[in-house]
Amino acid sequence: MAAKVAVVRFPGTNCEFDVVEAVTSLGGQAEIVFHDQTSLGGADAVVVAGGFAHGDYLRPGAIARFSPVMAAVTEFAAEGGPVVGICNGFQVLTEAHLLPGALQKNAGLKFRCQMADLVVASSDSVLTSEAQVGDVLRIPINHFEGNYTCSPETLAELRGDDRIVVRYADNPNGSVDDIAGICNEGRNVVGLMPHPERACNELLGSVDGQVMIGSLLASAGARV
Known about the structure:
About 20% of the residues lie in helices and about 25% in strands. By secondary structure, the protein is an alpha/beta fold. The protein is globular and about 40 Å long.
């Protein structure tokens, strides 16, 4: 049975269909779940997709964290379910306190839309279990507030617990310690600013995102 992935959509989300395409192209099932729903519909994994949830009013993800669906996502995560937040989804997960730290405006106050080389820093997460530490993945970024920041104490914890999942080879936004993605203590919740779902088709310039989406499906499959 194929793993079922719930793809969360808020008003302003614009990457949900990219995620659906990536998941289905790799043999999974995907179903869009709206922000006002209170159930994930028996999903084996969750992706909080990118975009501009609620127009990024206040700050990215600040309103989305109060949507009814986030209670279901939080419960699913607490039970060990695989949860991935991509770009705006990463911002939502930090606002919901499912991941530490915050995303602020890019260094130089410039919007960044480009390919980025990511170095896999840990293979012990639901997003990188099929990758090897040191692998370089070419994945696009598309953000204005992707500059990851956290307290020195949190950074020390992330480093010490091997919770920095991927780093930028050439930091495009000023993120502390070149961080592109992190995971929680349980290693089942991952947030990252780059878009692996946009790197799953040769026509898009890279298929390096397949190892990430494939890792998520493998983690989800373990729950089927």
